[in-house]
Amino acid sequence: MKIKNRPTSVTIQKGQQFPLTIKRLGINGEGVGYFKKQVVFVPGALPGEEVVVQAENIQPNYAEAVIKKIRKKSPHRVKPPCIYYDRCGGCQLQHLQYEQQLAAKRDIVIQALERHTNLEVDALDIRPTIGMDDPWHYRNKSQFQLGNEKQQVIAGLYGANSHKLVPIHSCMVQHPLTDKITQTVKQVLEDFHIPIYHERKRTGIVRTIVVRAGVQTNHVQVVLITKAEELPRKELIAAEIMKRAPEVKSVMQNINGSKTSLIFGDKTVLLKGEEVIQETLGDLSFELSARAFFQLNPVQTVKLYDEVKKAAGLTGSEKIVDAYCGVGTIGLWLAKDAAEIRGMDVIEESIRDAKKNAEKHGIKNATYVTGKAETWMPKWAKEGWRPDVVVVDPPRTGCDRAFLKTIKKVKPKRFVYVSCNPSTLAKDIQFLSSLYKVEYIQPVDMFPHTAHVECCALLIKK
C-alpha cells in the first residue's frame, strides 16, 4: 500500500504559544522567525532574540504573533523614549539602538533584491546606510487626524492596524514647531465649536490638520482638511490661528469628501496669508504650496541630493530628465553642473512651483512641463533631444511600467533612481536588468526609528 506524503509544515493555531528564535527584521520592522518551517512575524522582536510568542493572525503562508516573554534579549535592545510608542504605530524601531537600525535598513534593501530580482545580490555594491547625527525631531510636516473625546477635540494618529485614534501632544520625530502649531489649531477649532468629522458616521466637518514647517525659515503653513467646502466662520478661524501663532504665514482649506484613507482632495483654497511658504535647502530656496511634494527630513535631504549629484556624474555637458519632479528640488540641485534640465510631474501646482523656483534662482537651463515622462520623453526623442541622465524619485508604488518601457526605448547612459520603497526598487531594477546594470545602491536613513529606508541607486547602460 502506498502512503501519501504528509505535509512538511505544521499549521499554527490561533492562540497557540511557542518558542521562537528571531533571524532578521522584516520590511515593516517586525522580527522574523520560523516555527516548523512556517514564517512568523513578530512586531517588537529583534534579531538574535529568543522569545515565547502567541499566534494572533494565521494566513496560508505566514503567521503574525505577539511577544509573551523574552527569554534572551538582544544586546542592541533599548528602552523606547516615546510615551506613545507602543500605541501609536508611527515608529517601528525605537526599541533598537540607532546604529543597528542603520545596519537593519541595509539588510532590508538586500532582502528586497533577493526576493524580487535574479541578480547576484552578494556581488552588488550595497553601501552602509547614511544616518543622522541627531535622529530626533526631523519631520517638517505632520498630518494629524481629528476626533472627539469627552467633548474635547483630539488630534493624533491611528494606532497600528486599528481605527482607534491615539491623541498625541508632542511627537519625538516631528519638528517641535509642527507639534506646537497643531495644538494651537486644535484649540482654535475647539474654542469655535467647529464640528469634527466622524469617520464611521460621516458627520462633522474638519477631518485632519496638516502642518508644514519651513525648518530654515520658521515659516509655517496650516491646511484644514474638510469634508465639504462649507466651514463656519472660516476667515475668523484663519485669523485666530495666525494671531495665536505668528509663525503661520499661510492658512489653506482642502476639501476631501471621499470615503478614503487619502489625506488630500483635489480642491484647495486660500483662507488667509500666502498661498505658499518658503523653505531653503543648501543655497536654494523653495516655494511650497499645500499639495506640493517636498522631502520630510531636510537635514537628510541635503545628504540624499548630494548622493544623487554624485551618481549623475555631471561634467557640465549633460542633458537631464527629472521625472516625477515635484517642485523641482532634485533638478535645481543638479542644474548648475548640467547643460540642461527638463522636469515633469502630473500635479500642475507642483509644476507651477518648480517654474517659480527655477526663475527665482535665475536658473535658465531648466524647463518644467505638466504630464507624464512616458508622454514627454518619446516626443522629445522624436525631436532629436535625448537625455544623458534620467533622475527619478517616484512614489512608494515605484515607477509606472510605461515609464520604464520608455527608459528602455530612450536608453539614457545613466539612470539615477531615488527610492522610498526597496521592494518596488528591486522590481523596477529587475525589469531594467536586460539593459542596465546596478553600479551601486546607497541607502539613506530619511526616517529614523521607522522601518522606512530611502535609496539612491545608480544604473548604467550595459
TrEMBL record:
Residues 11-69 form the TRAM domain. Keywords: 4Fe-4S, Iron, Iron-sulfur, Metal-binding, Methyltransferase, S-adenosyl-L-methionine, Transferase. S-adenosyl-L-methionine binds at residues 295, 324, 345, 393. GO terms for biological process: rRNA base methylation. InterPro entries: MeTrfase_TrmA_AS, MeTrfase_TrmA_CS, NA-bd_OB-fold, SAM-dependent_MTases_sf, TRAM_dom, U5_MeTrfase_fam. The active site is at residue 420. One of its GO terms (molecular function) is 4 iron, 4 sulfur cluster binding. It comes from the Bacteria. It holds the Pfam family TRAM. Transmembrane segments: none annotated. Belongs to the class I-like SAM-binding methyltransferase superfamily. RNA M5U methyltransferase family. This is 23S rRNA (Uracil-5-)-methyltransferase RumA. The lineage of its organism: Bacteria, Bacillati, Bacillota, Bacilli, Bacillales.
